[in-house]
Amino acid sequence: MMERLIEAGLMFGNLIEVSSPTMVARYNAALEKLIGKRTTLTEFHIDLSGFSPEVGDELDDIRYLNPEGCNRMFILLSLDQLKAPLLNAQFSTMRSVLRNFIQDNARELMALSVREAVMGELVHSMWRIKSPADLLELRSVTVEANTPTDRLGEAEQLSRLIEDFRAKDDLWQDDAYIDTMIKLAGRVGDITRHPVRFRKTEYSQGNFYTNYFDGLYLFRDMSYPAMLYRGVAPGFPKIGAVETKDLESAVDVWHFLQLNGLITSVFEAADLNAKALLRQRLDFMLANVLAGKADAPAELARLNRQDLRRFAMRHANDLPPEFEVVEAALRAAEQGLKPRLPGPTEPGCFYLYRAAQLPDRDLVNQLLSEFTPLDIRQLFLCNKPAFYKAYQGWTERKQNYVVEFLSRDEALKNDEAWEDLFGDGTPEEEPPPQAGPWGAIPKG
């Protein structure tokens, strides 16, 4: 069922190929050290963390680098991994933590990876999550990293030996002591010029999404903090000092977002083409209706906007209530009038909003996508797990439409989609041109 997505590069896209015998051997050495297993594959693809879908299939364990879900292990072979997505992410913060660790410690990683992979674990203060309350304990992530041959441990040992050698006058006569230092230096290099010690390994984890408990958003660094998840028990409004909100309640979510100033109307954004955005959303709604009609063309993605509307008008009674709300707002904007913004009890309300330009913009846009499922482009960009889950329930005609549209949408390839949806600002920047497996050494 998902083969079309994979073939079109819409699933497992931008993974990094591992095919040279050297890199496969390095991967295996790290994998054996981490989980006691090796792969027999001679080529495969990896994500940002070194996870490979092919290796997961071979081991019959799609969570082989993330067994408990909380502390994700990783294998770093190349700076190219910065371009790759993070698959099966249990926490929305894990990608930024791993990217920041790589960028913050580029010099050290380059020195370590000359001969072997760098491997490790993203460690929370808890290794198993049993209840939503446990998530409040996760305030930071520590990156523990090394190489299969323990080069960091040997470098630290060499550093202590050098300090003692300088401090004690009689050690220059100890041949065994000096021989140990020489052997260690031969393995770890000149640590006096190139210290093998990471500059930064601890990262804060403030607001985040986790797929624990069927999907949960924690916004604690807010004026009015809240935890949003499904199945919130009535009469249980707080966990500690944090309010709990039902993720399935549009009213609860709406009031939380408004109270904290996390969303703005698409019409208030000077950096956003609100009319074009809403026209596209209406097209998606029309296509969704036609996808279930026998008299509609088989290749919906080939229809232009006028064709879509002409066919859809035959089934006007089947249009979703969201269509009428969004169309009325668009019509007012096109006539130079102030559009009416409906409240959360009316369908289509969330289609007229976007995240405010704040640090948690991406997380808020992911939350909004939960309430704008008919916008397949925003769902794909902001909430891929929800997109893949929804895709499996669509008709074959809609699946074909979505794959064709996303595959041909040039906006997805040049950041215009991000500007259309979110205004100024693009996804995390790609790394600069590389020179060797870990790129050019950064200045400073």
TrEMBL record:
Compositional bias segments (type: Acidic residues): 420-431
InterPro entries attached to this UniProt entry: DUF6638
Any Pfam family matching the protein: DUF6638
Spans annotated as Disordered: 420-444
Protein name: Uncharacterized protein
Source organism of this protein record: Labrys okinawensis
